[in-house]
Amino acid sequence: LTRGRRPSTETLAGLPVAVDAVGGDHAPAAVLEGAHAARRDGTPVLLVGPPERVGDTGGLDLSACTEVIAMDEDPAQGVRRKKDSSLVRAAELVRDAQASAMVSAGNTGATMAAALLRMGRLPGVLRPCIATPLPRLGGAPAVLVDAGANAECTPTMLVQFAQMGAAYATERYGVSRPTVGLLSIGEEASKGTPLVKETHAHMAGGAGVDFAGNVEGRDLLPSPVDVVVTDGFTGNVTLKSLEGALRFLFATLLERFGTDERSRAAADVLLPYLAPVATEFEPDRIGGAMLLGVAGVCVIGHGSSSATAIANAITSAYQLATGGLVEQLARAVAPTEAPAPGERAVVGE
Amino acid sequence: LTRGRRPSTETLAGLPVAVDAVGGDHAPAAVLEGAHAARRDGTPVLLVGPPERVGDTGGLDLSACTEVIAMDEDPAQGVRRKKDSSLVRAAELVRDAQASAMVSAGNTGATMAAALLRMGRLPGVLRPCIATPLPRLGGAPAVLVDAGANAECTPTMLVQFAQMGAAYATERYGVSRPTVGLLSIGEEASKGTPLVKETHAHMAGGAGVDFAGNVEGRDLLPSPVDVVVTDGFTGNVTLKSLEGALRFLFATLLERFGTDERSRAAADVLLPYLAPVATEFEPDRIGGAMLLGVAGVCVIGHGSSSATAIANAITSAYQLATGGLVEQLARAVAPTEAPAPGERAVVGE
User: Fold this and answer.
1) Does any CB of chain B come closer than 8 Å to the CB of residue A148?
2) Which pairing describes strands A142-145 and A129-134: parallel, antiparallel, or unpaired?
3) Does B189 contact A at CB distance below 8 Å?
4) Alpha carbons A293 and A102: distance in angstroms, whole number
5) B103, B266 Cβ separation under 8 angstroms
6) Per residue in A76-122, pLDDT tens?
7) pTM
8) ipTM of this complex prediction, to 2 decimal places
9) What residues of A are in contact with residue B249 (Cβ under 8 Å)?
10) Which residue of A63, A244, A341, B86 has the fewest CB atoms within a 10 Å radius of its CB?
C-alpha cells in the first residue's frame, strides 16, 4: 500500500459522489431517495452496489459490484475478504479519480477501513480520525475529534486531530479562526491522563492551532470552543452518552405530553415552539461524520440515516471535495512532522 | 499511610455524622439548614469548621478547627498543609470512631485525599473510587464507578470498582443481585482500549460479580445494568457530559416555554406533568457521590449542594455507616487478594 496522493482539487469538479447504495438500516430505499434529492440539487451521484440488491435506480447511474459488507461484520475482515464490495469499490472510485467523494451509512468500521486502505493516508498523518458535529443552537456546530476511529492514541495523534479538526471547522462551517479545546477532567494543565497532560503541553507550546486549554464534559453542549479534541475511546463514549441522554429525555417528555387530554392539548400548542430545538439535535440535519486524514473525502452516515440525512451527506461531501478540504487537511498537518526523505507510510496494521 | 482498620459496625450506631460546615458554594447557610433537617429526622450530626466562619449553629454541636481548604485549592497540598482544616478533622473523627461518617460538599479532591490519608484504605483495596448514581425513572438508580477518583487505572482496579460498586448497589439501593456492565465502544469483548479488553477478560472469567458484558455510552440513561464500571477519566467526562446536556436541554425548553403568552399558558398546564422528570434528574434528590474503598463512609456532595442535598447526604451517610456498608465493601474486594487455599469467592451469588 502506498502513501495517499495529494489530490488535485480542480480535477474533482463534476465527478460524482460514490454512494454506497446498500449501507444503512434503511438501504436501499432511503439511500436512493436521498441520492435523487442530492441529484436534483445539482450534485452528481454514482450509486455503488449489487444491482439485484439495489433494484430500480430510477435513472441514477450504478457502479455494479457483487458483494456487501454487513452492518455487524468485522470491518478489517470484511474489507480484506470482500474486494468487490460496495464499500471497497466506492473507495477505489475516489482513489482512481472516478468519484469526488464517497458516502456510506453502512458499517462504520468497514467504511473507515476501506477508505484508509484504498485511498491511503495523507502525507504525515499518523491516523485518520472521525469528526462529528456538536450542535450549538442557532450557530455553527462545534467539531468533536476523534469521535471513535482510534481507541488508542498518542499525543502527536491528538495534535494532528486538532489541526485537522480546525481545518475542517473552517472548510465545513466557515469558522475563520477556530478555537481548540482539549477534553479533560479539569481546566488545569495538570489534570487528566498522561496522554492528556502531554497533549496539553504540545498544544500550549504552539501546534499551529488556536489552543484554548482544557474543556470538560459539561462544556460539550453548547461547546465554548470550535473544536473539541479527545481520543477515540472517550469521544465515542461521550458522543453516545449525549445521544442517548437526549433521545431518552425527548422520549420521556413526549410520553408525559401524552399523559391525558389536558396535557395533550397543551402539548399541541407547545410542540411548534419546541420543534426547532428537536431539529437542531436531529442527526438528519447534520449530514454525517467525516473521516479526516485519508486522501479523499469520506462521509460516514449514521446507520439510521433517513433520505434527508443521505442527501445532506452527499451534498456536503461534494462541496467539501470540490472546495479543497483534503488539501487544507494536508496543509494543516504538514508543519508538525518533517518526514525523512523516502519515508513510507505504513497502513494496514 | 497505614492500612485502614476494618471498622466494627456496632460501634457506629448513635455516633454523629461529621459534616464539613464550610464546604460547598452555599456554605455555611445551606449546610446548616441541611444539617438541621437531618437532625430533625433523627440523624445525629456534628458540624466541623472554624467557629467564626460557621457562625450561629442554632444548637448543633460544632467541632472547632482553624483552617479551611478552599474549593479551588490543590487537594494534596491542602490536606498536607492544613492539618487543622475541617476536611482533615472530619476524616480524623471517623478514623477515631468519634463520628460514624463524614459529609462534605467542598473541594472534591481534598475530601477524597483527607479520607484516604486519614481513614486509610480497606484491606486489599488498590484505590478508592467514586460511585455516582445514574437515574432510572421510577426505579433504583444505577451506579457509575469510577466517577472521577482515578484518571489512570489498571484492570485489577476496575475489577475492584465493580466489586465495590455491586456491594454499594445492594446496600444503598437494595438491589439483591446487581448486574455489572463495562463501559466500552462496542458490545464485543474485542472492542475498546487494552485496559477495557483486559478488564473484560478478568470479569468474564469470574470476579465475584454478575458480569453482563460491555455497555455503551448510549446505554447510560437509563442503564440496563445496575453497575457501570469505567476508569475515572472516562467516568468524569461522561458524567459531566450527561449533566451538561440535561441542564442545557432543560434550560432551552424553559426558554422556549416562555416565548410568548400562548406558550406560557400551555407551559403552565404542562409543567406539573414534567416536574417529576426534572426531579429525577435533580442532584438534590440523589444525595451525593460516595467514596468507596476507604475505611469509613465518606459522602461527597456536589459543590452546588442545596440544604436538601446536604440533608439527604447526611441521612444516607448515617444509614450506610450503621448498616455495615464498609464491612460489605471489604468483603466484596477480599476474594481478589490471594485467597487462602480452599477459600471461595461468595460475593454476588
Assistant:
1) yes
2) antiparallel
3) no
4) 14
5) no
6) 999 999 999 999 999 999 999 999 999 999 999 999 999 999 999 99
7) 0.90
8) 0.89
9) 221, 246, 249, 277
10) A341
